[in-house]
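The material for today's practical consists of a large collection of protein records. There is nothing in a record beyond a sequence line and a structure line. As an example, a complete record with its sequence and its structure tokens follows:
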Amino acid sequence: PFHFLLSDLRGCVPLTNTSTMPRTIDSAGRTEVMTDKFYFYDGPLPTANRSRFCLIGGTAHPDLCNKVAQYLGVAPLKTVIKIFADTETSVEVLESVRGKDVYILQAIARSFGDVGHSVNDALVELVLLIACLRRASARSITAVIPYYGYARQDRKTGRTPVSAAEVASMISNAGPDHVLTLDLHATQIQGFFPPTAPCDNLTATMVAASYFVEQGLGSAAVVSPDAGGVPRAKEFRASLARFQPDDAERLPGLSMLIKQRSGASQIERMDLVGNEIHGRDVILVDDMVDTAGTLCVAAQRCKEGGARRVFAFCTHGLLSGSAPLRLAKACSEGFLDALVVTDSVPQRPSADWNGACEGFKPPTVKILSVAPMLAESIKRLALDDHISTLSLSKL
């Protein structure tokens, strides 16, 4: 059933995606969306190459694993992952992997479901899965990590560990041959992995840019909510421009916000740098949204600066704590029109989400799937093909 054509924006015309109708996934009004065309998916893994290919999904995000498996045209291996009474994790693979190329899809993120697991549970599970496959004589092991937990702890401040590096050590010591991540918080995390377990970092920028262009927002101004995110915003701006290279007058502008904190998660002041937003639609771009404090203040500041409409794109929609309430207030007050995230992490149950909104109308949240892009990346690795055309720098 998968017959879509990959386009690298250099002359290929992608076929229409026949499954793009927005789908409301729960009573909280969160909507699953897809682009009208598949720009980064070229069909399933060829049948002739499936004999040595295996896909395993952890318990952190089984829905994403199942989507990726469908796009690849394979079924995930049968595994048994249990939590004992004392909260220890037990992992068992029920099928032979001897001489196979195995891909493990596990986000280092909390999960919900019947038994919610923490970020630490997901990390331990990933390490045990890698060790299990190594002891089971797998030919190669690739860890596909859609969300890399602990990524924000990427530098030493006082007497603190560089937790992102320690997590990389835990994973690499388990014995993977390759690591594939998505929109790391800081690209230097790739260097935390040794040459024996090289890390490639994919980006959802082009997928999101194609979605916004299809929604008529190709000329929107791009704003970074902080100085550290300016390179990411520049990349997103360039991505939008690539969809309209012959229309220079409509190229998006670029601005940024400088925030001053009075404490952890406490923003004292936020100043707008750049004059590209007045009378224009705005897209706030960041790698993740956690408690949504920065995002909501940034949206308000953009509105006060004369923006017509304000949208936001964040690859990883953690949406922890009071994020639903903050977003609901921002939407109800007209500061934020919609938030777009990807399905790199699982979302909170609808009852929890609605309760956290405390009577406000739930915010407009659209969940853009990165499963086709992940499937294409995994397929290319399995075929010993390059994945550079999935990177903005090569398009």
